[in-house]
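To close the section, here is one more complete example, presented without commentary so you can practise reading it yourself. The ligand is guanosine-5'-diphosphate.
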Amino acid sequence: MTAGADREVSRGGSRDVPDLVRRARAGDARSVARLITLVESGGPQLPQIAAELAGHTGHALVVGLTGAPGVGKSTTTSELVRVLRGRNLRIGVLAVDPSSPFTGGAILGDRVRMQDHATDPGVYIRSMSSRGHLGGLSSATPAAVRVLDGVGCDVVLIETVGVGQAEVEVAGLADTTVVLLAPGMGDAVQAVKAGILEIADIFVVNKADRDGADGTVRDLTGMLALTATAPGGWRPPVLRTVAAHGDGLDDLVTAIERHRDWLAGRGELTARRARRVAAEVEAIAIGTLRGRISSLRGGTLPAELAAEVLAGRLDPYAAADRLLAELTRSTPTPR
Ligand code: GDP
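Output:
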């Protein structure tokens, strides 16, 4: 944790949490930033923040944008913000960079376009690393989405570099997943290899001003035609954009709205969100369990059992059984 984040955590003592949430909900950008820092640093206020937000979440539409580096995600996100702001919606943007060791402050260095929105009080932009979560989205990302939802964002955009696991995870977090491709980047064939066809709700072929865009659209449409869609199922549209000129962005917003309506009409929006929350609850429970296991008998039991296994006196299953037995005997740590 950075010294700055550390200070913020100590300043945001648990008595301050209700006040912080109240100010964030009233539109104070600094309070929103502080809340995200708190959830990102995994501080002891996490449960209280979640409790304070609980009655206010479930409103935001969560849209994931993913694709290879350079396809135009950042430009598209920024243009999407512009179009959505034109409709007077409050927007949260989480830019998750799986390669960045920085969090919070590592703001969008080269994302000049994003800075167009930096002074707009209706837009919260946050960049997060996914350090500590192998190759994927930060484990704090769901909590940060909850903050942005709970403080009143109508739409939360999660932008992440498509590097294998991260794009599958972004699909798990989002109501609608937008996969971006660009001509001449290995595109459609690579997309199939990476399993993208399964996760995309909407395809965008960006840089449609470049040669090869028609071919990319054609390849992708051809591949999609080969995949089985259940009757009444959603067939991902393939859109063209020139994000650098803001072209095609209205169509993208329309496609996102159509997908949301389709989800809602079939009860899928609630079902997707229920799956998301179930995964989040499970992850929290596993985290709690892991913490309790590692602190068993003052933190010595796991090491003792490991020594027994190494010495051949116990097998790993029997050792795990002992850990679990010890857990049920020990009292849960009070929050
Ligand atoms: P990201 O790495 O996926 O976030 O991609 P960026 O949004 O940073 O864009 C990468 C580069 O492509 C930048 O230089 C953009 O200006 C450029 N770019 C973005 N959209 C378009 C487009 O529609 N057409 C062209 N020709 N260039 C674009």
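Once you have examined the tokens, check your reading against these statements. Residues 26 and 151 are 8 Å apart (CA to CA). The chain has a mean pLDDT of 83.
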